[in-house]
Amino acid sequence: MMVTDMHTWLLRLASLKLTLVIFVFFCASVVLAYFTQWSPAWILALPFSLFAVNLTAAILANPAFRRQPGLLVFHLALLALIVLLTISRLTYLKGHLEVSDGESFTGELTESESGPLHPWHLEQARFLQKNFTIDYAPGLNRDRTRSQVVWQDEKGGTHKAIIGDHYPLILAGYRFYTTHNKGFAPSFIWYPTNGRAPQQGTIHLPSYPAHEYQQALSWNIPGTKHEVWALLEIDEVVLDENRKSEFKAPEKHRLVIRYNGQRRELRPGASVLFEDGRLKYEGLRVWMGYAVFYDWTIPWLLSACVLTVLGMGWHFWRKFAARPWRAED
Amino acid sequence: MEREIQLLWLAVVVYVIAGSLAIFAVVLGKRPEKTILGLLISALLIHGVSIGLRWIRLDHGPYLTMFEILSSNVFSLLFVFALAYWRYRAIRPVAAIVLPLMFIMMGWLMLSNPNPGHLPPTYDTTWLVIHIMFGKVFLGAVLVAVGMAGVVLLRAAGIGEQKFARLPSDRRLDDLAYRFMALGFIFESLMLIAGAIWAQDAWGRYWAWDPLETWSFVNWIVLGFALHLRITLKPAPVWGALLVMAVFILAFLTFFGVPFISQTPHQGAI
Protein backbone atom coordinates (compact mmCIF):
# COMPACT_ATOMS: atom_id res chain seq x y z
CA MET A 1 0.00 0.00 0.00
CA MET A 2 2.78 2.36 1.03
CA VAL A 3 4.77 1.49 -2.11
CA THR A 4 1.69 2.26 -4.25
CA ASP A 5 1.25 5.62 -2.50
CA MET A 6 4.90 6.50 -3.08
CA HIS A 7 4.62 5.52 -6.72
CA THR A 8 1.51 7.70 -7.11
CA TRP A 9 3.41 10.63 -5.59
CA LEU A 10 6.39 9.98 -7.82
CA LEU A 11 4.12 10.02 -10.88
CA ARG A 12 2.55 13.29 -9.73
CA LEU A 13 5.95 14.88 -9.19
CA ALA A 14 7.12 13.58 -12.58
CA SER A 15 4.13 15.09 -14.37
CA LEU A 16 4.97 16.85 -17.65
CA LYS A 17 2.15 19.30 -16.91
CA LEU A 18 3.91 20.18 -13.67
CA THR A 19 7.05 20.83 -15.75
CA LEU A 20 5.10 23.38 -17.78
CA VAL A 21 3.92 25.11 -14.59
CA ILE A 22 7.51 25.17 -13.30
CA PHE A 23 8.68 26.66 -16.62
CA VAL A 24 6.18 29.51 -16.19
CA PHE A 25 7.18 29.97 -12.54
CA PHE A 26 10.87 29.94 -13.51
CA CYS A 27 10.33 32.53 -16.20
CA ALA A 28 8.32 34.76 -13.83
CA SER A 29 11.08 34.45 -11.20
CA VAL A 30 13.79 35.51 -13.66
CA VAL A 31 11.72 38.51 -14.75
CA LEU A 32 11.03 39.38 -11.09
CA ALA A 33 14.75 39.20 -10.29
CA TYR A 34 15.45 41.46 -13.28
CA PHE A 35 12.98 44.17 -12.30
CA THR A 36 13.79 44.15 -8.57
CA GLN A 37 16.98 44.60 -6.60
CA TRP A 38 16.54 41.24 -4.85
CA SER A 39 19.26 38.64 -5.13
CA PRO A 40 18.62 36.41 -8.19
CA ALA A 41 20.18 33.46 -6.32
CA TRP A 42 17.51 33.61 -3.61
CA ILE A 43 14.62 34.30 -5.99
CA LEU A 44 15.64 31.42 -8.25
CA ALA A 45 16.33 28.94 -5.44
CA LEU A 46 12.69 27.78 -5.32
CA PRO A 47 12.11 27.27 -9.09
CA PHE A 48 15.50 25.54 -9.35
CA SER A 49 14.56 23.22 -6.47
CA LEU A 50 11.18 22.47 -8.04
CA PHE A 51 12.89 21.75 -11.33
CA ALA A 52 15.32 19.38 -9.63
CA VAL A 53 12.47 17.49 -7.91
CA ASN A 54 10.43 17.30 -11.13
CA LEU A 55 13.47 16.19 -13.16
CA THR A 56 14.49 13.51 -10.64
CA ALA A 57 10.95 12.16 -10.42
CA ALA A 58 10.60 12.15 -14.21
CA ILE A 59 13.91 10.32 -14.71
CA LEU A 60 12.84 7.70 -12.15
CA ALA A 61 9.21 7.29 -13.19
CA ASN A 62 8.99 8.05 -16.91
CA PRO A 63 9.73 4.98 -19.07
CA ALA A 64 10.50 7.26 -22.04
CA PHE A 65 13.92 7.94 -20.51
CA ARG A 66 14.85 4.26 -20.74
CA ARG A 67 13.81 4.10 -24.38
CA GLN A 68 15.57 7.33 -25.36
CA PRO A 69 19.17 7.49 -24.09
CA GLY A 70 19.74 10.96 -25.56
CA LEU A 71 16.80 12.30 -23.58
CA LEU A 72 18.16 10.62 -20.45
CA VAL A 73 21.63 12.14 -20.90
CA PHE A 74 20.08 15.57 -21.52
CA HIS A 75 17.94 15.46 -18.37
CA LEU A 76 20.64 13.91 -16.16
CA ALA A 77 23.05 16.64 -17.29
CA LEU A 78 20.39 19.28 -16.53
CA LEU A 79 20.01 17.81 -13.05
CA ALA A 80 23.80 17.81 -12.59
CA LEU A 81 23.81 21.44 -13.72
CA ILE A 82 21.28 22.41 -11.04
CA VAL A 83 23.27 20.58 -8.33
CA LEU A 84 26.53 22.19 -9.49
CA LEU A 85 24.95 25.66 -9.59
CA THR A 86 23.78 25.16 -6.01
CA ILE A 87 27.29 24.14 -4.91
CA SER A 88 28.69 27.08 -6.87
CA ARG A 89 26.43 29.55 -5.03
CA LEU A 90 27.47 28.08 -1.69
CA THR A 91 31.23 28.24 -2.28
CA TYR A 92 31.90 31.10 -4.71
CA LEU A 93 33.71 34.36 -4.08
CA LYS A 94 33.53 37.52 -6.10
CA GLY A 95 35.50 40.57 -5.07
CA HIS A 96 37.69 43.51 -5.93
CA LEU A 97 41.11 44.59 -4.80
CA GLU A 98 43.59 47.35 -5.53
CA VAL A 99 47.35 47.00 -5.53
CA SER A 100 50.07 49.55 -6.35
CA ASP A 101 53.05 48.71 -8.52
CA GLY A 102 55.87 47.42 -6.37
CA GLU A 103 53.47 46.25 -3.66
CA SER A 104 52.15 42.77 -2.90
CA PHE A 105 48.61 41.54 -2.68
CA THR A 106 48.27 39.91 0.71
CA GLY A 107 44.65 38.81 0.70
CA GLU A 108 42.85 42.04 1.50
CA LEU A 109 39.80 42.84 -0.63
CA THR A 110 38.16 46.25 -1.00
CA GLU A 111 34.77 44.59 -1.46
CA SER A 112 33.53 41.05 -1.77
CA GLU A 113 30.56 38.74 -1.75
CA SER A 114 30.77 35.03 -1.18
CA GLY A 115 28.79 31.88 -0.55
CA PRO A 116 28.42 30.72 3.08
CA LEU A 117 30.77 27.76 2.53
CA HIS A 118 33.58 29.61 0.78
CA PRO A 119 36.90 28.13 2.06
CA TRP A 120 38.70 31.53 2.39
CA HIS A 121 42.33 30.84 1.55
CA LEU A 122 43.10 34.09 -0.25
CA GLU A 123 46.35 34.43 1.68
CA GLN A 124 47.68 31.56 -0.46
CA ALA A 125 47.17 33.72 -3.54
CA ARG A 126 49.88 36.31 -2.83
CA PHE A 127 51.48 38.08 -5.76
CA LEU A 128 53.72 41.06 -6.37
CA GLN A 129 52.45 43.75 -8.70
CA LYS A 130 55.12 44.97 -11.11
CA ASN A 131 54.64 47.55 -13.86
CA PHE A 132 51.52 47.63 -15.98
CA THR A 133 50.64 49.39 -19.21
CA ILE A 134 47.26 50.26 -20.67
CA ASP A 135 46.93 51.41 -24.26
CA TYR A 136 44.35 54.02 -25.16
CA ALA A 137 42.94 54.61 -28.63
CA PRO A 138 41.80 58.08 -29.79
CA GLY A 139 38.57 59.12 -28.07
CA LEU A 140 39.87 57.80 -24.71
CA ASN A 141 38.91 54.24 -25.65
CA ARG A 142 40.69 51.74 -23.47
CA ASP A 143 42.69 49.10 -25.34
CA ARG A 144 45.04 46.36 -24.21
CA THR A 145 46.11 45.99 -20.60
CA ARG A 146 49.40 44.25 -19.79
CA SER A 147 50.10 43.75 -16.15
CA GLN A 148 53.29 42.12 -14.90
CA VAL A 149 52.96 39.99 -11.81
CA VAL A 150 55.38 37.81 -9.87
CA TRP A 151 54.54 35.06 -7.40
CA GLN A 152 56.07 32.10 -5.66
CA ASP A 153 54.78 28.56 -5.75
CA GLU A 154 54.56 26.22 -2.75
CA LYS A 155 58.14 25.03 -3.30
CA GLY A 156 59.49 28.58 -3.33
CA GLY A 157 59.95 28.79 -7.11
CA THR A 158 59.45 32.28 -8.58
CA HIS A 159 57.09 32.75 -11.50
CA LYS A 160 56.41 35.76 -13.70
CA ALA A 161 53.51 36.43 -16.03
CA ILE A 162 51.91 39.20 -18.01
CA ILE A 163 48.18 39.12 -17.44
CA GLY A 164 45.43 41.26 -18.92
CA ASP A 165 42.38 41.01 -21.11
CA HIS A 166 41.35 37.36 -21.40
CA TYR A 167 44.45 36.22 -19.44
CA PRO A 168 43.77 36.02 -15.71
CA LEU A 169 46.26 35.09 -13.01
CA ILE A 170 45.10 31.86 -11.38
CA LEU A 171 46.46 31.18 -7.90
CA ALA A 172 45.07 28.71 -5.34
CA GLY A 173 41.85 28.49 -7.35
CA TYR A 174 41.36 32.28 -7.35
CA ARG A 175 41.23 34.04 -10.70
CA PHE A 176 42.52 37.62 -10.83
CA TYR A 177 41.35 39.80 -13.71
CA THR A 178 42.57 43.27 -14.61
CA THR A 179 39.74 45.80 -14.81
CA HIS A 180 39.17 49.31 -16.14
CA ASN A 181 39.65 50.49 -12.57
CA LYS A 182 43.09 51.98 -12.01
CA GLY A 183 44.66 55.23 -10.94
CA PHE A 184 47.53 57.10 -9.34
CA ALA A 185 49.07 56.25 -6.02
CA PRO A 186 51.25 58.85 -4.23
CA SER A 187 53.84 56.99 -2.18
CA PHE A 188 54.95 58.21 1.27
CA ILE A 189 57.35 57.24 4.03
CA TRP A 190 56.46 58.15 7.60
CA TYR A 191 59.46 58.58 9.92
CA PRO A 192 58.20 58.67 13.51
CA THR A 193 60.34 60.58 16.05
CA ASN A 194 59.69 58.01 18.80
CA GLY A 195 62.34 55.68 17.37
CA ARG A 196 59.94 53.29 15.70
CA ALA A 197 60.72 51.94 12.25
CA PRO A 198 59.72 54.09 9.26
CA GLN A 199 56.53 53.05 7.49
CA GLN A 200 56.11 53.12 3.75
CA GLY A 201 52.75 53.16 2.02
CA THR A 202 50.65 54.49 -0.81
CA ILE A 203 47.25 56.10 -1.02
CA HIS A 204 44.99 55.22 -3.94
CA LEU A 205 43.49 58.30 -5.54
CA PRO A 206 40.11 57.88 -7.30
CA SER A 207 40.04 55.91 -10.54
CA TYR A 208 41.53 57.63 -13.59
CA PRO A 209 40.33 58.88 -16.11
CA ALA A 210 36.81 58.14 -14.78
CA HIS A 211 37.39 60.70 -11.96
CA GLU A 212 39.91 62.88 -13.73
CA TYR A 213 38.85 66.03 -11.90
CA GLN A 214 38.52 64.48 -8.45
CA GLN A 215 42.11 63.38 -7.83
CA ALA A 216 41.96 64.10 -4.10
CA LEU A 217 41.76 62.03 -0.95
CA SER A 218 41.83 62.41 2.85
CA TRP A 219 43.60 59.83 4.98
CA ASN A 220 45.18 59.36 8.36
CA ILE A 221 48.89 58.76 8.80
CA PRO A 222 49.04 55.24 10.28
CA GLY A 223 49.49 55.17 14.06
CA THR A 224 48.78 58.91 14.42
CA LYS A 225 45.75 61.19 14.57
CA HIS A 226 47.00 63.36 11.70
CA GLU A 227 44.45 63.68 8.95
CA VAL A 228 46.01 64.70 5.63
CA TRP A 229 44.17 65.81 2.53
CA ALA A 230 46.02 65.34 -0.75
CA LEU A 231 45.28 66.63 -4.23
CA LEU A 232 47.18 65.59 -7.34
CA GLU A 233 47.69 68.41 -9.82
CA ILE A 234 48.83 67.11 -13.19
CA ASP A 235 50.74 69.50 -15.47
CA GLU A 236 50.77 67.36 -18.62
CA VAL A 237 48.33 65.46 -20.80
CA VAL A 238 48.15 61.92 -19.47
CA LEU A 239 45.71 60.49 -22.00
CA ASP A 240 45.35 62.36 -25.28
CA GLU A 241 41.82 62.25 -26.64
CA ASN A 242 43.03 62.84 -30.19
CA ARG A 243 45.75 60.20 -30.52
CA LYS A 244 46.95 56.88 -29.20
CA SER A 245 48.37 57.11 -25.71
CA GLU A 246 49.41 55.01 -22.76
CA PHE A 247 48.29 55.23 -19.17
CA LYS A 248 51.23 55.96 -16.88
CA ALA A 249 52.10 58.15 -13.93
CA PRO A 250 52.68 61.75 -15.09
CA GLU A 251 56.18 63.11 -14.67
CA LYS A 252 55.04 66.74 -14.40
CA HIS A 253 52.85 66.91 -11.35
CA ARG A 254 52.50 68.48 -7.92
CA LEU A 255 50.97 67.03 -4.83
CA VAL A 256 49.03 69.59 -2.82
CA ILE A 257 48.49 68.56 0.77
CA ARG A 258 46.58 70.15 3.62
CA TYR A 259 47.19 69.25 7.25
CA ASN A 260 46.65 71.05 10.57
CA GLY A 261 45.30 74.08 8.68
CA GLN A 262 48.41 74.37 6.49
CA ARG A 263 48.82 73.94 2.73
CA ARG A 264 51.95 72.62 0.99
CA GLU A 265 52.87 71.72 -2.54
CA LEU A 266 55.15 68.72 -2.69
CA ARG A 267 57.45 67.39 -5.35
CA PRO A 268 59.00 63.90 -5.13
CA GLY A 269 61.54 63.81 -2.28
CA ALA A 270 59.99 66.70 -0.31
CA SER A 271 58.97 66.25 3.34
CA VAL A 272 56.49 67.74 5.79
CA LEU A 273 57.29 68.00 9.48
CA PHE A 274 54.85 67.09 12.21
CA GLU A 275 55.48 67.29 15.97
CA ASP A 276 55.81 63.49 16.16
CA GLY A 277 57.41 62.66 12.85
CA ARG A 278 58.24 63.50 9.26
CA LEU A 279 56.18 62.61 6.19
CA LYS A 280 58.22 62.22 3.03
CA TYR A 281 56.60 62.21 -0.40
CA GLU A 282 58.51 59.57 -2.37
CA GLY A 283 56.85 59.96 -5.73
CA LEU A 284 53.89 58.93 -7.81
CA ARG A 285 53.07 55.33 -8.62
CA VAL A 286 50.05 53.70 -10.23
CA TRP A 287 47.55 51.24 -8.78
CA MET A 288 45.59 48.53 -10.58
CA GLY A 289 42.12 47.36 -9.65
CA TYR A 290 41.55 43.63 -10.00
CA ALA A 291 38.41 41.56 -9.95
CA VAL A 292 38.87 38.27 -8.15
CA PHE A 293 36.67 35.25 -8.74
CA TYR A 294 36.61 31.84 -7.15
CA ASP A 295 34.38 29.01 -8.27
CA TRP A 296 35.81 25.51 -8.35
CA THR A 297 32.74 24.20 -10.17
CA ILE A 298 33.56 26.04 -13.44
CA PRO A 299 35.07 23.04 -15.35
CA TRP A 300 32.29 20.77 -14.06
CA LEU A 301 29.61 23.29 -15.03
CA LEU A 302 31.09 23.48 -18.52
CA SER A 303 31.16 19.68 -18.77
CA ALA A 304 27.53 19.45 -17.66
CA CYS A 305 26.53 22.14 -20.20
CA VAL A 306 28.30 20.32 -23.02
CA LEU A 307 26.67 17.02 -22.00
CA THR A 308 23.26 18.75 -21.93
CA VAL A 309 23.67 19.94 -25.50
CA LEU A 310 25.10 16.62 -26.70
CA GLY A 311 22.20 14.73 -25.10
CA MET A 312 19.71 17.16 -26.59
CA GLY A 313 21.31 16.88 -30.03
CA TRP A 314 21.40 13.09 -29.85
CA HIS A 315 17.76 12.95 -28.81
CA PHE A 316 16.49 15.27 -31.55
CA TRP A 317 18.71 13.61 -34.17
CA ARG A 318 17.20 10.16 -33.44
CA LYS A 319 13.71 11.58 -33.18
CA PHE A 320 13.81 13.50 -36.47
CA ALA A 321 15.70 10.77 -38.33
CA ALA A 322 12.74 8.48 -37.73
CA ARG A 323 10.74 10.55 -40.21
CA PRO A 324 12.54 12.35 -43.06
CA TRP A 325 12.45 16.14 -43.02
CA ARG A 326 11.18 16.17 -46.59
CA ALA A 327 8.46 13.58 -46.01
CA GLU A 328 5.11 14.55 -47.46
CA ASP A 329 1.86 14.33 -45.49
CA MET B 1 34.31 52.24 -47.43
CA GLU B 2 32.39 53.45 -50.49
CA ARG B 3 32.83 50.13 -52.29
CA GLU B 4 31.43 48.23 -49.30
CA ILE B 5 28.38 50.47 -49.14
CA GLN B 6 27.79 50.25 -52.89
CA LEU B 7 27.92 46.45 -52.73
CA LEU B 8 25.61 46.44 -49.74
CA TRP B 9 23.08 48.59 -51.59
CA LEU B 10 23.32 46.29 -54.59
CA ALA B 11 22.74 43.24 -52.38
CA VAL B 12 19.72 44.88 -50.74
CA VAL B 13 18.23 45.69 -54.14
CA VAL B 14 18.65 42.06 -55.23
CA TYR B 15 17.14 40.82 -51.93
CA VAL B 16 14.16 43.11 -52.48
CA ILE B 17 13.69 41.85 -56.05
CA ALA B 18 13.80 38.24 -54.75
CA GLY B 19 11.28 39.04 -52.00
CA SER B 20 8.94 40.91 -54.35
CA LEU B 21 9.08 38.02 -56.80
CA ALA B 22 8.24 35.60 -53.97
CA ILE B 23 5.17 37.67 -53.07
CA PHE B 24 4.01 37.94 -56.70
CA ALA B 25 4.56 34.21 -57.16
CA VAL B 26 2.19 33.42 -54.28
CA VAL B 27 -0.39 36.04 -55.34
CA LEU B 28 -0.36 35.02 -59.03
CA GLY B 29 0.10 31.30 -58.40
CA LYS B 30 3.39 31.17 -60.35
CA ARG B 31 6.52 29.19 -59.43
CA PRO B 32 9.67 31.18 -60.30
CA GLU B 33 11.46 29.35 -57.49
CA LYS B 34 14.76 28.80 -59.29
CA THR B 35 14.93 32.51 -60.14
CA ILE B 36 14.24 33.44 -56.52
CA LEU B 37 16.92 31.02 -55.29
CA GLY B 38 19.37 32.38 -57.87
CA LEU B 39 18.65 35.96 -56.80
CA LEU B 40 19.04 35.04 -53.12
CA ILE B 41 22.40 33.35 -53.74
CA SER B 42 23.63 36.29 -55.85
CA ALA B 43 22.59 38.80 -53.19
CA LEU B 44 24.25 36.72 -50.48
CA LEU B 45 27.48 36.56 -52.48
CA ILE B 46 27.52 40.34 -53.05
CA HIS B 47 26.61 40.97 -49.42
CA GLY B 48 29.31 38.53 -48.28
CA VAL B 49 31.94 40.42 -50.28
CA SER B 50 30.75 43.71 -48.74
CA ILE B 51 31.05 42.27 -45.21
CA GLY B 52 34.42 40.71 -46.05
CA LEU B 53 35.86 43.99 -47.35
CA ARG B 54 34.78 45.76 -44.16
CA TRP B 55 36.19 42.95 -42.01
CA ILE B 56 39.59 43.23 -43.74
CA ARG B 57 39.57 47.04 -43.54
CA LEU B 58 38.65 47.25 -39.84
CA ASP B 59 40.34 44.01 -38.74
CA HIS B 60 37.33 42.84 -36.78
CA GLY B 61 34.09 41.05 -37.56
CA PRO B 62 30.69 42.68 -38.10
CA TYR B 63 29.57 42.69 -34.45
CA LEU B 64 30.35 46.11 -33.07
CA THR B 65 28.08 48.88 -34.33
CA MET B 66 24.36 48.54 -34.99
CA PHE B 67 25.12 48.91 -38.71
CA GLU B 68 27.46 45.90 -38.61
CA ILE B 69 25.11 43.86 -36.43
CA LEU B 70 22.14 44.51 -38.73
CA SER B 71 24.18 43.83 -41.85
CA SER B 72 25.56 40.53 -40.53
CA ASN B 73 22.09 39.52 -39.31
CA VAL B 74 20.45 40.19 -42.66
CA PHE B 75 23.21 38.06 -44.18
CA SER B 76 23.11 35.19 -41.66
CA LEU B 77 19.30 35.01 -41.42
CA LEU B 78 18.93 34.97 -45.18
CA PHE B 79 21.77 32.48 -45.50
CA VAL B 80 19.97 30.06 -43.15
CA PHE B 81 16.70 30.72 -44.96
CA ALA B 82 18.31 30.20 -48.38
CA LEU B 83 19.65 26.84 -47.17
CA ALA B 84 16.15 25.81 -46.01
CA TYR B 85 14.68 27.15 -49.27
CA TRP B 86 17.15 25.09 -51.32
CA ARG B 87 16.73 21.88 -49.29
CA TYR B 88 12.94 21.84 -48.69
CA ARG B 89 11.13 22.60 -51.94
CA ALA B 90 7.76 22.01 -50.36
CA ILE B 91 8.04 25.05 -48.13
CA ARG B 92 9.41 27.50 -50.72
CA PRO B 93 6.31 29.74 -50.83
CA VAL B 94 6.99 30.76 -47.20
CA ALA B 95 9.57 33.10 -48.74
CA ALA B 96 6.62 35.44 -49.32
CA ILE B 97 6.37 35.77 -45.52
CA VAL B 98 10.01 35.60 -44.47
CA LEU B 99 11.56 37.99 -47.01
CA PRO B 100 9.17 40.91 -46.30
CA LEU B 101 10.04 40.47 -42.61
CA MET B 102 13.67 40.91 -43.59
CA PHE B 103 12.82 44.08 -45.54
CA ILE B 104 12.18 45.77 -42.17
CA MET B 105 15.67 44.87 -40.98
CA MET B 106 17.13 46.00 -44.30
CA GLY B 107 15.36 49.37 -43.99
CA TRP B 108 16.78 49.79 -40.49
CA LEU B 109 20.23 48.81 -41.80
CA MET B 110 20.18 51.38 -44.58
CA LEU B 111 19.27 54.12 -42.10
CA SER B 112 21.98 53.26 -39.57
CA ASN B 113 25.38 54.92 -39.33
CA PRO B 114 28.08 52.95 -41.20
CA ASN B 115 31.02 54.60 -39.39
CA PRO B 116 33.29 52.18 -37.55
CA GLY B 117 33.29 51.78 -33.78
CA HIS B 118 36.06 51.03 -31.33
CA LEU B 119 36.77 47.36 -30.62
CA PRO B 120 37.04 46.97 -26.83
CA PRO B 121 39.79 44.56 -25.74
CA THR B 122 37.11 42.33 -24.18
CA TYR B 123 35.67 41.78 -27.68
CA ASP B 124 38.98 40.62 -29.16
CA THR B 125 38.50 36.88 -28.70
CA THR B 126 37.50 33.86 -30.78
CA TRP B 127 34.86 32.95 -28.20
CA LEU B 128 32.89 36.07 -29.07
CA VAL B 129 32.82 35.04 -32.74
CA ILE B 130 31.71 31.51 -31.77
CA HIS B 131 29.07 32.94 -29.40
CA ILE B 132 27.70 35.20 -32.15
CA MET B 133 27.73 32.45 -34.80
CA PHE B 134 25.64 30.16 -32.59
CA GLY B 135 23.24 33.03 -31.90
CA LYS B 136 22.81 33.69 -35.60
CA VAL B 137 22.03 30.04 -36.36
CA PHE B 138 19.50 30.10 -33.50
CA LEU B 139 17.74 33.17 -34.87
CA GLY B 140 17.92 31.83 -38.44
CA ALA B 141 16.30 28.53 -37.42
CA VAL B 142 13.52 30.38 -35.60
CA LEU B 143 13.03 32.63 -38.66
CA VAL B 144 12.45 29.59 -40.88
CA ALA B 145 9.93 28.30 -38.29
CA VAL B 146 8.26 31.73 -38.40
CA GLY B 147 7.73 31.36 -42.15
CA MET B 148 5.83 28.10 -41.61
CA ALA B 149 3.96 29.40 -38.59
CA GLY B 150 2.95 32.43 -40.66
CA VAL B 151 1.36 30.20 -43.29
CA VAL B 152 -0.56 28.28 -40.59
CA LEU B 153 -1.81 31.53 -39.07
CA LEU B 154 -2.76 33.04 -42.46
CA ARG B 155 -4.68 29.91 -43.32
CA ALA B 156 -6.44 29.98 -39.94
CA ALA B 157 -7.39 33.61 -40.55
CA GLY B 158 -8.84 32.64 -43.93
CA ILE B 159 -6.23 34.73 -45.77
CA GLY B 160 -4.37 33.17 -48.66
CA GLU B 161 -5.81 29.72 -48.08
CA GLN B 162 -5.79 29.08 -51.81
CA LYS B 163 -2.50 30.87 -52.40
CA PHE B 164 -0.71 28.55 -49.98
CA ALA B 165 -2.74 25.50 -51.04
CA ARG B 166 0.24 23.63 -52.47
CA LEU B 167 2.17 23.90 -49.23
CA PRO B 168 2.02 20.86 -46.90
CA SER B 169 -0.84 20.55 -44.40
CA ASP B 170 -0.90 22.63 -41.22
CA ARG B 171 0.02 19.54 -39.21
CA ARG B 172 3.10 18.92 -41.37
CA LEU B 173 4.12 22.60 -41.30
CA ASP B 174 3.69 22.53 -37.52
CA ASP B 175 5.98 19.49 -37.34
CA LEU B 176 8.62 21.15 -39.52
CA ALA B 177 8.40 24.37 -37.49
CA TYR B 178 8.89 22.27 -34.34
CA ARG B 179 12.03 20.74 -35.86
CA PHE B 180 13.49 24.15 -36.63
CA MET B 181 12.58 25.34 -33.13
CA ALA B 182 14.40 22.30 -31.69
CA LEU B 183 17.43 23.21 -33.82
CA GLY B 184 17.12 26.76 -32.51
CA PHE B 185 16.99 25.44 -28.93
CA ILE B 186 20.26 23.54 -29.41
CA PHE B 187 21.99 26.55 -30.91
CA GLU B 188 20.65 28.95 -28.30
CA SER B 189 22.03 26.62 -25.62
CA LEU B 190 25.39 26.63 -27.41
CA MET B 191 25.22 30.42 -27.68
CA LEU B 192 24.68 30.74 -23.92
CA ILE B 193 27.57 28.34 -23.17
CA ALA B 194 30.01 30.09 -25.55
CA GLY B 195 28.85 33.46 -24.15
CA ALA B 196 29.55 32.28 -20.60
CA ILE B 197 33.08 31.22 -21.59
CA TRP B 198 33.65 34.62 -23.20
CA ALA B 199 32.23 36.49 -20.18
CA GLN B 200 34.46 34.53 -17.78
CA ASP B 201 37.57 35.58 -19.69
CA ALA B 202 36.43 39.09 -20.47
CA TRP B 203 34.91 40.21 -17.16
CA GLY B 204 35.85 37.50 -14.69
CA ARG B 205 32.38 36.03 -14.30
CA TYR B 206 30.50 33.54 -16.44
CA TRP B 207 27.08 34.89 -15.58
CA ALA B 208 25.98 38.15 -13.99
CA TRP B 209 22.30 38.54 -14.91
CA ASP B 210 23.01 41.61 -17.05
CA PRO B 211 20.04 42.62 -19.24
CA LEU B 212 21.20 40.73 -22.33
CA GLU B 213 22.04 37.60 -20.33
CA THR B 214 18.74 37.74 -18.46
CA TRP B 215 16.59 38.14 -21.55
CA SER B 216 18.56 35.53 -23.49
CA PHE B 217 17.90 33.13 -20.63
CA VAL B 218 14.19 34.09 -20.65
CA ASN B 219 14.27 33.24 -24.37
CA TRP B 220 15.77 29.85 -23.55
CA ILE B 221 13.05 29.16 -20.96
CA VAL B 222 10.26 30.24 -23.32
CA LEU B 223 11.68 28.12 -26.13
CA GLY B 224 12.01 25.16 -23.73
CA PHE B 225 8.43 25.77 -22.61
CA ALA B 226 7.19 25.85 -26.23
CA LEU B 227 8.94 22.56 -27.07
CA HIS B 228 7.72 20.91 -23.87
CA LEU B 229 4.16 22.13 -24.36
CA ARG B 230 4.08 20.65 -27.82
CA ILE B 231 5.04 17.22 -26.48
CA THR B 232 2.82 17.40 -23.40
CA LEU B 233 -0.43 18.94 -24.61
CA LYS B 234 -0.10 18.37 -28.38
CA PRO B 235 -1.76 21.69 -29.20
CA ALA B 236 -3.45 22.47 -32.54
CA PRO B 237 -1.09 23.84 -35.24
CA VAL B 238 -2.49 27.34 -34.74
CA TRP B 239 -1.38 27.34 -31.09
CA GLY B 240 2.00 25.91 -32.10
CA ALA B 241 2.33 28.71 -34.67
CA LEU B 242 1.47 31.35 -32.05
CA LEU B 243 4.20 29.96 -29.78
CA VAL B 244 6.71 30.17 -32.64
CA MET B 245 5.73 33.81 -33.19
CA ALA B 246 6.04 34.54 -29.46
CA VAL B 247 9.55 33.05 -29.37
CA PHE B 248 10.62 35.01 -32.45
CA ILE B 249 9.24 38.32 -31.16
CA LEU B 250 10.91 37.78 -27.78
CA ALA B 251 14.21 36.83 -29.45
CA PHE B 252 14.04 39.85 -31.76
CA LEU B 253 13.33 42.23 -28.86
CA THR B 254 16.14 40.64 -26.85
CA PHE B 255 18.83 40.90 -29.50
CA PHE B 256 17.79 44.17 -31.11
CA GLY B 257 16.02 45.97 -28.24
CA VAL B 258 17.95 45.19 -25.06
CA PRO B 259 21.32 46.54 -26.38
CA PHE B 260 19.65 49.97 -26.53
CA ILE B 261 18.71 49.98 -22.84
CA SER B 262 21.64 48.04 -21.39
CA GLN B 263 24.34 50.07 -19.62
CA THR B 264 26.66 47.10 -19.09
CA PRO B 265 29.81 46.25 -21.08
CA HIS B 266 27.89 43.31 -22.58
CA GLN B 267 26.34 45.51 -25.25
CA GLY B 268 26.38 43.59 -28.49
CA ALA B 269 23.44 42.13 -30.27
CA ILE B 270 24.18 38.80 -31.93
For this entry, give a set of tags:
heterodimer; A: 329 residues; alpha+beta; five-stranded antiparallel beta sheet; 6 helices; 32% helix; B: 270 residues; mainly alpha; 8 helices
Structural category of chain A is alpha+beta
Q: Find the biggest chain interface.
A: A-B, 47 and 47 residues
| Average predicted local confidence, pLDDT of chain A | 93
Give the oligomeric state of the chains in this entry, treating copies of one chain as homo and distinct chains as hetero. Answer: heterodimer
Mean pLDDT of chain B: 91
State the distance separating the first and last CA atoms of chain B: 23 Å
Q: Helix tally of chain B?
A: 8
Flag low-confidence runs of chain A.
none
- Helical percent range of chain A? 25-40%
Secondary-structure topology with pairs:
The complex is a heterodimer of chains A (329) and B (270).
Chain A: H1 2-13, H2 16-35, H3 40-61, H4 64-67, H5 69-91, E1 93-100, E2 104-105, E3 111-114, E4 127-137, E5 141-152, E6 158-164, E7 169-171, E8 174-192, E9 199-202, E10 216-220, E11 227-234, E12 245-247, E13 253-259, E14 262-266, E15 271-274, E16 277-294, H6 298-321
Antiparallel strand pairs in A: 1-3, 1-16, 2-4, 4-5, 4-12, 5-6, 7-8, 8-9, 8-16, 10-11, 11-13, 13-14, 15-16
Chain B: H1 2-28, H2 33-58, H3 66-87, H4 95-111, H5 126-156, H6 170-203, H7 211-233, H8 237-261
